[in-house]
Amino acid sequence: KGTNGGFAICNSDTYSSSVCDGTIYHTVVRSPIYGDHGGPRTAESDFTDQGEREFRYVLMPVGESFAPVIKAAKLLNKPTTNIIENWHPGKLSDKIFSGLSVDCDHVVVSALKRAEDGQGLVIRIYETDGAEADVTVSGAVLPTALKTKITPYSFMTFYLDDASGEWKEVLLTEYDIENG
């Protein structure tokens, strides 16, 4: 992203892209054994990228914010699921359901899960544009909204204790920051 804007390559099922002397190089296949880690090779040691390969990519402009690029990349890699509903009597509600909502375009929720200790929820967020922001994450799937300040390009993990109903920032490993 330069002063006049730029572009991004979003891809699915490929490895990397690079630019050199105005040429874009996109690695679409690799041939090492994956998951090898230097151990003994077993029947489970598959070779990567053997046979026919399918992938998709999108070349898109980047303006002042990377938020649209992040959203496009996520949709490319995990398309929206279409659930077909059978006919039933009754009327659909006019209400809008929001399972999870972030009030800042350049903050992304990367995970929401049950905590490893089984005693709370964990949410992970990150900032994409290099701008500090006050952010609120709320919605029907959260018993309590998360309100925090996020610094440029940071990645933060929070824990919501079931008993207290209060959020606290924790390490990526879900341990307390002080005792980590």
Give the structure's gist in a few sentences.
This protein has 180 residues and is mainly beta. The protein contains one helix and eleven strands, in the order E-E-E-E-H-E-E-E-E-E-E-E. The longest helix is centred in the middle third of the chain and has 11 residues, at 67-77.
Please tell me about this protein's structure.
It contains 1 helix and 11 strands; from the N terminus they run ββββαβββββββ. A hairpin with a 7-residue loop joins strand 8 (133-138) and strand 9. The protein has one helix at 67-77; strands at 6-12, 16-20, 23-27, 56-62, 101-102, 107-114, 120-127, 133-138, 146-150, 155-161, 167-170. It is globular, with a radius of gyration of 21 Å. The relative contact order is 0.12. Helices cover 6% and strands 36% of the residues. The strands form 4 sheets. It has a 4-stranded antiparallel sheet, with no helix packed on it. It has a 3-stranded antiparallel sheet with strand order 5-8-9, with no helix packed on it. A two-stranded antiparallel ribbon has the order 1-4. With 180 residues, it is mainly β.
Strand content: 35-45%
* Shape verdict: globular
Radius of gyration: 21 Å
User: What is the subunit arrangement here?
Assistant: single chain
Largest sheet: 4 strands, antiparallel
Number of helices: 1
Number of beta-strand segments: 11
Mean pLDDT: 85
Structural class: mainly beta
How far apart lie the N and C ends? 36 Å
Strand order of the largest sheet: 6-7-10-11
Low-confidence region ranges: none
> What is the succession of H and E elements?
EEEEHEEEEEEE
